[in-house]
Amino acid sequence: MSKKIIFTEKAPAAIGPYSQAVLAGNTLYVSGQIALDLAPLGDIKAETQRIMENLGHILAEAGMDYTNVVKSSIFLKKMDDFGIVNEVYGSFYPENPPARETVQVAKLPKDVNVEISVIAVK
């Protein structure tokens, strides 16, 4: 199985010992994305929009798009933000959305409000 590190300057660089994404065979594993440039803004809609755009840039670097996403994980600081995050997130998947879980967590890096990771397949 081949393994390729995926990186784009259009999305934030990793802030630790991890890659933006790893392509293993035909499967792309995208690390959790946060709205690093907006932290700690606190505007959950803006944060989610930026994260989804960053995910799109990473997917494109791997020759994919949102239609290739088969699984998403959403981590929220407050479950009260679920409705807003869901609305923005859903606008990127108008048909056949991927499998997903959404969980509330105690704290996220850089004190952001939301983090999203995805798995995509060619």
UniProtKB/TrEMBL annotation:
<dbReference type="InterPro" id="IPR006175">
    <property type="entry name" value="YjgF/YER057c/UK114"/>
</dbReference>
<protein>
    <submittedName>
        <fullName>RidA family protein</fullName>
    </submittedName>
</protein>
<dbReference type="Pfam" id="PF01042">
    <property type="entry name" value="Ribonuc_L-PSP"/>
</dbReference>
<comment type="similarity">
    <text>Belongs to the RutC family.</text>
</comment>
<dbReference type="InterPro" id="IPR006056">
    <property type="entry name" value="RidA"/>
</dbReference>
<dbReference type="InterPro" id="IPR035959">
    <property type="entry name" value="RutC-like_sf"/>
</dbReference>
<dbReference type="GO" id="GO:0019239">
    <property type="term" value="F:deaminase activity"/>
</dbReference>
<dbReference type="GO" id="GO:0005829">
    <property type="term" value="C:cytosol"/>
</dbReference>
